[in-house]
Design a protein that fits this description.
binds potassium ion, alpha/beta, binds magnesium ion, Ferrous iron transport protein B, binds guanosine-5'-diphosphate
């Protein structure tokens, strides 16, 4: 069967490498990303007759490409087009994890969320409803613990099934921002050198005044919607979490 490529990403210290190890076992190579001293871990996951290439991307909070780690993660998603982006979330810091997840969803649709450290969440006394979370986000969600092994087999099966799902837009910005996004998409559409990129994603990045995308598109706006865009994401996350997490008042989650 066809070789599948999966990229792991998530905030720093959420258990990416631990999950990567659980998926690939000893079938892995550690090197550096080209030209930089950031560690690159690649490995192979075996499941039934499938052989899957897995890459452990550097930890990031956003995909803004303002740091080297962010740029490596973002460029990999754009240039290497993995079949699935596996976002590792932290069950005890899910808001922050979802903030990154939404940005991955803006970039590409084939996304799976692993809510890791579910053992710690249970200890802290709250419950995450993975079916509700999955319904709200429109993507598969698996609860995992790299420590107890919970959810690892389910995650492997979910990853194999998820390759080649289709892209969606999962939430909308204000009418004003959506109108700007349509305008920008129209401007970008005519540019053949940008055909490899998702137009909506490029447009969002232009409204956020992303320097890389400004260079890439040759478009630089004289307004900046990055605050409004961040607020929309956070509002959406709050709504999702209020329906899919029980007992979260016990741990006092903080935003940004
Ligand atoms: P990374 O920075 O995202 O690659 O995270 P690591 O895999 O290096 O893990 C960071 C820390 O969290 C380590 O001490 C792990 O042992 C711990 N850890 C990872 N996954 C879990 C988990 O599911 N449950 C618990 N309790 N700890 C975990
Ligand atoms: K941790
Ligand atoms: Mg790591």
């Amino acid at each position: 069967s066809k070789k599948i490529k999966i990229a792991l990403l998530g905030n720093p210290n959420v258990g990416k490498t631990s999950i990567f190890n659980a998926l690939t076992g000893s079938r892995q190579i550690v090197a550096n990303w080209p030209g930089v001293t950031v560690e690159k871990r690649t490995g192979v996951m075996k499941l039934a007759n499938h052989t899957v290439d897995v890459v452990d991307l550097p930890g990031t909070y956003t995909l803004g490409a303002t740091s080297l780690d962010e740029r490596i993660a973002r460029d990999f998603l754009i240039n290497e087009r993995p079949d699935v982006a596996l976002v590792i979330g932290d069950a005890v810091n899910l808001e922050r994890s979802l903030y990154l997840l939404l940005q991955v969803l803006e970039l590409r649709g084939d996304v799976v969320l692993a809510v890791n450290a579910i053992d710690e969440a249970r200890k802290a006394g709250f419950e995450i409803d993975k079916h509700e979370l999955s319904k709200q986000l429109g993507i598969p969600v698996v609860l995992t613990s790299a420590v107890t092994g919970e959810g690892i087999e389910e995650l492997k099966n979910t990853l194999i099934k998820s390759a080649r799902s289709s892209s969606h837009v999962h939430y909308l910005f204000t009418d004003e921002i959506e109108a700007s996004l349509r305008n920008l998409s129209d401007r970008i559409k005519g540019n053949a050198s940008l055909s490899a990129f998702d137009q909506r994603w490029l447009s969002i990045k232009l409204l956020e005044r992303d320097k890389e995308v400004e260079k890439l598109t040759g478009i630089s706006l004289d307004y900046d919607y990055s605050i409004e865009i961040a607020e929309t994401r956070y509002k959406y996350i709050k709504r999702i979490l209020s329906s899919s997490v029980k007992g979260k008042e016990k741990i006092g989650w903080n935003l940004s």
